[in-house]
Write a structure and sequence with these properties.
single chain; mainly alpha; 50s Ribosomal Protein L17, Chain: A; 7 helices; 3 strands; 62% helix; elongated
């Protein structure tokens, strides 16, 4: 029975459990991401997050306390030098657990635990989404203005198309027949004939 069982013993004695969690915490700090079983990942999260919180206070006492848990100078240096700067503005929740399905041999649930601020893929996606300037509540003012401009432009194109259609639809006078042209020419010649003779007489 599980009377008074406050945490997962992971089927190990206390010294074995502490040593295993210390090694896993060191690996997580050095590599920023490790794959293990889901039960161990949940136990590691409870173990390592208080150490990350303590790293925000960079004092000799804090370093000694963290070293008593990790037993690795390289991990302590990495934690206080790099990780503490990344998580300075984050109020807890430094790790993320992602389930990976079951293991082939014993069907154990597998998971990946990683430091949230060191996943460059997710951080890049958030930056691109933020750069777009969209929000959940509705369309932005710039989007509305762009839509209005598009409507005005489309209306102008429609009006221009109608005007050009009207210009093309104007009736064109039919060309005169050849006989009518010949009659007009003869009329002009007859009218100019006496005038030309009068001018010749005056010259003589």
């Amino acid at each position: 029975m599980r009377h008074g069982k406050k945490f997962n013993h992971l089927s190990r004695k206390s010294p074995h459990r502490r040593a295993m969690l210390s090694n896993m915490a060191t690996s997580l700090i050095m590599h920023k991401r490790i794959t293990t079983t889901l039960a161990k990942a949940k136990a590691l999260r409870v173990y390592v997050e208080p150490l990350i919180t303590r790293s925000k206070d960079d004092t000799t006492h804090s370093r000694r306390v963290v070293f008593s848990y990790l037993q690795s100078k390289e991990a302590v240096t990495e934690l206080f030098r790099d990780i503490s700067l990344k998580v300075a503005e984050r109020p807890g929740g430094y790790t993320r657990i992602i389930k990976l399905g079951t293991r082939l041999g014993d069907n154990a649930e597998m998971a990946m635990i990683e430091l949230v601020d060191f996943n460059l893929n997710l951080l890049g996606e958030k930056a691109t989404v933020k750069a777009k300037g969209t929000r959940r509540g509705g369309r932005s003012g710039a989007g509305k203005k762009g839509a209005e401009d598009a409507v005005v432009a489309s209306a102008g194109k429609v009006k221009a198309g109608k005007d050009s259609a009207k210009k093309e639809a104007k009736p064109v006078a039919p060309a005169p027949a050849p006989e009518e042209k010949a009659e007009e020419v003869t009329d002009i010649i007859e009218e100019s004939g006496p005038v030309a003779e009068a001018e010749e007489e005056t010259k003589a």
